[in-house]
Fold this sequence. Notes:
single chain, alpha/beta, Spore Coat Polysaccharide Biosynthesis Protein SpsA, Chain A, Rossmann fold, 2 domains, 8-stranded mixed β-sheet, 20 helices, 22 strands, elongated
Amino acid sequence: xxxxxxxxxxxxxxxxxxxxxxxxxxxxxxxxxxxxxxxxxxxxxxxxxxxxxxxxxxxxxxxxxxxxxxxxxxxxxxxxxxxxxxxxxxxxxxxxxxxxxxxxxxxxxxxxxxxxxxxxxxxxxxxxxxxxxxxxxxxxxxxxxxxxxxxxxxxxxxxxxxxxxxxxxxxxxxxxxxxxxxxxxxxxxxxxxxxxxxxxxxxxxxxxxxxxxxxxxxxxxxxxxxxxxxxxxxxxxxxxxxxxxxxxxxxxxxxxxxxxxxxxxxxxxxxxxxxxxxxxxxxxxxxxxxxxxxxxxxxxxxxxxxxxxxxxxxxxxxxxxxxxxxxxxxxxxxxxxxxxxxxxxxxxxxxxxxxxxxxxxxxxxxxxxxxxxxxxxxxxxxxxxxxxxxxxxxxxxxxxxxxxxxxxxxxxxxxxxxxxxxxxxxxxxxxxxxxxxxxxxxxxxxxxxxxxxxxxxxxxxxxxxxxxxxxxxxxxxxxxxxxxxxxxxxxxxxxxxxxxxxxxxxxxxxxxxxxxxxxxxxxxxxxxxxxxxxxxxxxxxxxxxxxxxxxxxxxxxxxxxxxxxxxxxx
Length: 570
């Protein structure tokens, strides 16, 4: 018996993937099975490091006949990832076993899947083989069939997958036309028809409900073991489509499944047992809602919400940002000279000269602080660059008159600093003539800096990209020209979406009177602008925290540290 290939779908939970693969490896048929691990791309910067860790776990997988890793170039989402992944495997093979990373399986799981596939290959009425069984009050004596299909550890054939209709609206209409909605919901409001309706509104809600409904309408059956061979350990509130719940907990069977010679019809006993489970699940759900309303936990949570509300309300009353604004060009014209105003560069110069005379503290936005306000992402970036590059050479794009240089000056000797080059606007470069500091120099263009100091150990862009007209183009051009070993994008606002969001930022009058257009960068667009030859080291919250807009938007500031990958560096 040739073993079916195993498709494992993962995203951003490396620990779950490790445990899932470990449980598969315990199966006696693991060494005869090909494994294809699909790893979805990050949705945003918060996912980058976890997705990277998943890739690392996948590369460590052993104990199988072969392991192939398919890394998605972008975030597909669960629906697209599974639909395309299953179709991709079945384009080359006639059978498939599908496991998501939040599942742990019995040591007899692969045996049951493969034996079921072999036994019912020519029986077109059988849609799939399934490994998970809902908690039941009465144990089942033998495997059983239920109408439809399921999605927690399953196997099928190409001929059945080709018959799936992913048009949720059409499926719902067909179920309604034949009066099958009640039967589809186990005659107890199990919620499957509701999930199908939600998928009509948002197709990314569920692929599995269309798989189930298609097979249900075709009167096909799915084979289940008498005791669950699968446990879903992802119902912890961190999964993509699953909320936190203990209602689905089961003990995995430690015995081989026997008795495939069963009658080809839906089990009345199993249907009634599943119906009881969903009835109990509905009662628990309403009890939980009732208790939550009356317990002190409810009031504590409401109090926390009130505190958050007041925090946001105060920020709206005294906003740091105004907007978002729709007409960026008009706003840009209204701010006047902005950061290019000579009055600003002169005030920054005065603050910097005062800082040099005291030999302590730091300067930011022309304000001198008695104590240094450290950016820990910057300290890490400088440390790594100093450790791995002979002679630390820094190019600080938009670095004012050396704000970051003076913030870290007491560490320069330890870092073996060779040069710190600031690229700034002409007004700042002109004022820099009076700034005398060891190994600090100023340039108007990246080309001038490159000619004088060569390729940098690290390129720093701290609180600068958000003020540029075309931040992604500027970033790409800088990296292509300078080819730094490390890149630090620090103190930069991001928005979790595919579009940028622009605001009008007013500087407090006690600092200086100015307004800027500030753009919260789209995390997706930024990730696409990062060259393929750079790897993410870490994504941090910046020490700025978050700003709030006049319309209540929270704009988080982050830091991204990148490293030229080893292959490119050679």
